[in-house]
Amino acid sequence: MSAPLQTHPLATRALIEALGGDQVKTDEVSCLAASYDNTRYSFMPEAVVAPKDVENLQKVVRLANLHKVPITVRGRGTGNTGASAPIRGGWVIHLAHWEKIEIDPQSSLACVEPGAITAKINECAAVHGLFFPPDPSSLNFCSIGGNISTNAGGLRAAKYGVVRDFVVALEGVLPTGEFVRWSAPLRKFVSGYNLRDLWVGAEGTLGIVTKAWIRLVPLPQARRTFLFAFESDEKALEAAAALMTSRVAPAVFEFLDTQTTEVAQRRLGASVFTAAEVQGVANPALLLIELDGHPAVLAEDAEKVRAWAKGRTLAQRESDDPVEAEKLWTIRRTCSQAMYLLGNAKLNEDIVVPFRSYVKLIQLAQRMRTTYGLPTPTFGHAADGNFHIHVMYNREDKEHCRKAESAILEMMREVVAMGGAITGEHGIGISKSPFLRLQHTPAEINAMMAIKRALDPNNILAPGQIFEPVNVWEYTASKVTFPWDKH
């Protein structure tokens, strides 16, 4: 599948001499643990480096640049595209231990190191009545460095925006080892080119973030959660598009198709609604809506939601009690792991389509299920068109693998033809690299690569990511269990 990896024994020896054995590990256990992310595709590095501070980090990068050793930056390993997997070997720079968090309540800013866990940032901010809105589903495990690297979104992105909307300033190290600061922790800053935003979403290919200042917003005073059932996927998505024209701004607006509902209810061992409530529809499509804000505004929006639901839904529930609301959330939280009742492997694509294509998208998923004979459960963020389509298969079955590959290629072509995007929040990494040229023209890709060459002349930082197509379905994923697999 690929040429044998080059090794760099002299460079690795120089690395150990420069930093010491407490910061550099070359044993098999350490290297294996740093060889994969949530995709489970393993590529062994030669060394794992945990630098103590920025000065030591610069030493690592300068040595790598001098000897042309590939380096890959790693946080908590929750990524879904293989972006932190060292596909070219070399060294992995592990920054999970860089996890300091400082809250400035007067400026509503947090100064954070890249290894800080997203949920922990919110715990610290909540003490001051503030929070960081982007909330990937892995927020209890993922780090802010990874969030910045992929420009993560999450469930609340429709109302509050994505990570880029909250990054005020960055500090870090270029692939040449030079220290830089992009922007400053100020309300306004327009000096020079905006290279801060260039790093956000670059998936660790243009530099290494060592510190970030992120904007915080006031915690909402009240929340109300709704769960609605529909007799078909099409009716649920038509209703979703209608709600978006009512000028209600849900903090969360999630769609679960009938395939997802079926498998999630199986995993939970219970139905969300009784048969009588949903008129005998065993697996209804679902919309989960959460409103937040000032109680008076929330009450007005809740009335709009109830009016919108009238005549459209089979059944509904709502609550402003946190305990009861969490029960409504249960089915959404079990979706990802429930998928594995349909197969032991999945191709998970976080595509984005415009509102006008919602029904067309779900019909595409249904057609693929019929054509290829593989489950295609779909759920995601109805307020911004960012849906997660899964192709579930058994990796030991060669015919399953062939069909899954064909299905995902067809789906990506169709999504781009709809005016959509091949990724909305996971990034490209290696798993979406075969589709990059469906989305971008040669001129666009050449411009991106020119920036890469300018900042990383020796192509040492995350080489093999994004621009070089990798057919991940040709690789066997490792059988490993992560802490978030149980959630």
Entry summary:
The chain has 487 residues and is α+β, with helices and mostly antiparallel strands. The protein is built from 16 helices and 18 strands.
Structure description:
It contains 16 helices and 18 strands. By secondary structure, it is of the alpha+beta class. The chain has four domains: 9-96 and 450-486, 2-Layer Sandwich (Uridine Diphospho-n-acetylenolpyruvylglucosamine Reductase, domain 2); 101-218, 2-Layer Sandwich (Uridine Diphospho-n-acetylenolpyruvylglucosamine Reductase, domain 3), CATH 3.30.465.10; 222-332, 2-Layer Sandwich (Alpha-Beta Plaits), CATH 3.30.70.2190; 342-425, 2-Layer Sandwich (Alpha-Beta Plaits), CATH 3.30.70. The strands form four sheets. Strands 15-12-14-13-17-18-16 form a seven-stranded antiparallel sheet, sandwiched between helices. The protein has a five-stranded antiparallel sheet with strand order 5-6-10-8-9. It has a four-stranded mixed sheet with strand order 1-2-4-3, covered by helices on one side. β17 and β18 form a beta hairpin. The longest helix has 20 residues, at 398-417. It is globular, with a radius of gyration of 23 Å. The mean pLDDT is 94.
Notable characteristics:
487 residues; alpha+beta; Uridine Diphospho-n-acetylenolpyruvylglucosamine Reductase, domain 2; Uridine Diphospho-n-acetylenolpyruvylglucosamine Reductase, domain 3; Alpha-Beta Plaits; 4 domains; 7-stranded antiparallel beta sheet; 5-stranded antiparallel beta sheet; 16 helices; 18 strands; 19% strand; globular
